[in-house]
Design brief:
11 helices; alpha+beta; globular; 5-stranded mixed β-sheet; single chain
Length: 279
C-alpha cells in the first residue's frame, strides 16, 4: 500500500517537485499571476552580461549566485515592499517567488545579507544601468508612450531618532535651533544656506535638512521622479539630500524623448523653461 509519508522521509531522493511535476508550479503560479506575467513579458537573459563587469573573475572561493537571480529577487522586494530579511523569508515560503527565481523547490533562499552585498557590488552605476535597460525595453514595447513626462519630488525622512537630530548629536536641541534660524530667514536663499550648514548633519551623514514650506522642515532626502504620463511608469529617478532645490534637478529626470513636460511648481523657473525648450 502506498504511504504518502515515503516522499518526506529523510534520505529519500524523491521530492515533492518530482512527485507532482509541472502541475505543482502551474497551481502555485497561475496564468494571471503577476510574476508569471512579468516573466513572460521580459527577457532577463541579458542581466548576467550587464552585471559581468562588476564581478572579479576568480577561481577561488564559492561560485557566486547568478546576478539574474538576485536582480529578480530585488524586483520582488520592490513589489512587496520587503526588507532584506523579509525577502529571504518570502523566497523560502512562497512557491511563486521560487518559480520566478528559477529555484528548485527544496533550494534555500540566499542569506539576507547577500542582497545588500549585491546592491553594493553594482553600486548606483550598475543599478541605474539595469534600470535604464528595462526602461528602454518598456519604450520599445510601447508601454511608455512618451507623450508627456510628469516630474515631481517627494520627501524621504531619514531613519534616525529625532532625539539625535541635533548639531552635537546630544539631544533634541536641533528642532529648536533650526526653528529659531528658519524663523529669522526671510528668503528661500537664506533657508538653503541654513540647511547646508555642516552643523545640521546628524547621524545619517548623507541626509540633509530641508523644508517643505516656510514653517515645515524635515531631515532626510528628496526623491525626484520622472514618470510617463499615460502609463504612469517611472522612467528616471534621482535621490538628493533634503536641502537640494527642485529647480536644479528637472533635467536629470526628464525624458528627453517626451513631447511635453508637466512639473510641480517647485521646478518652475525661467531658466528651466529655456533649458527644456532647448532639449
Amino acid at each position: 500500500m502506498f504511504n504518502p509519508r515515503f516522499i518526506f522521509e529523510e534520505g529519500n531522493q524523491m521530492s515533492l517537485e518530482k512527485w507532482y511535476g509541472p502541475a505543482l508550479w502551474q497551481r502555485a503560479v497561475p496564468v494571471d499571476h503577476r510574476l508569471r506575467k512579468i516573466s513572460e513579458e521580459f527577457d532577463f537573459s541579458e542581466v548576467n552580461g550587464i552585471c559581468e563587469k562588476y564581478y572579479v573573475q576568480s577561481h577561488l572561493g564559492r561560485t557566486p549566485i547568478e546576478p539574474v537571480k538576485l536582480f529578480k529577487a530585488l524586483i520582488v522586494q520592490v513589489l512587496e515592499g520587503l526588507s532584506d530579511r523579509e525577502l529571504e523569508e518570502k523566497i523560502n515560503s512562497d512557491l511563486a517567488v521560487k518559480w520566478f527565481l528559477a529555484m528548485n523547490l527544496e533550494e534555500k533562499a540566499p542569506d539576507h545579507s547577500t542582497f545588500g552585498e549585491f546592491r553594493d557590488r553594482l553600486g548606483e552605476a550598475g543599478l541605474k544601468e539595469l534600470f535604464h535597460h528595462y526602461v528602454n525595453v518598456l519604450i520599445k514595447k510601447r508601454y511608455v508612450t512618451r507623450k508627456v513626462t510628469v516630474v515631481d519630488s517627494t520627501t524621504i525622512l531619514a531613519n534616525v531618532s529625532k532625539d539625535r537630530q541635533s548639531p552635537s548629536n546630544k539631544g533634541s536641541g536641533m528642532t529648536k535651533w533650526m526653528k529659531r534660524k528658519m524663523d529669522r530667514a526671510e528668503t528661500n536663499y537664506e533657508k538653503e544656506k541654513i540647511v547646508e550648514d555642516p552643523k545640521c548633519v546628524a547621524t545619517d551623514q548623507d541626509a540633509r535638512w530641508g523644508y517643505k514650506s516656510k514653517k515645515e522642515i524635515f531631515y532626510g532626502y528628496k526623491q525626484h521622479t520622472g514618470m510617463d504620463g499615460e502609463s504612469r511608469l517611472i522612467t528616471e529617478v534621482e535621490v538628493t539630500g533634503g536641502n537640494n532645490s527642485d529647480q536644479n534637478h528637472i533635467l536629470s529626470v526628464l525624458d528627453k524623448g517626451a513631447q511635453a513636460v508637466v512639473a510641480d511648481k517647485g521646478y518652475d523657473s525661467f531658466m528651466n523653461r529655456w533649458l527644456i525648450h532647448q532639449e
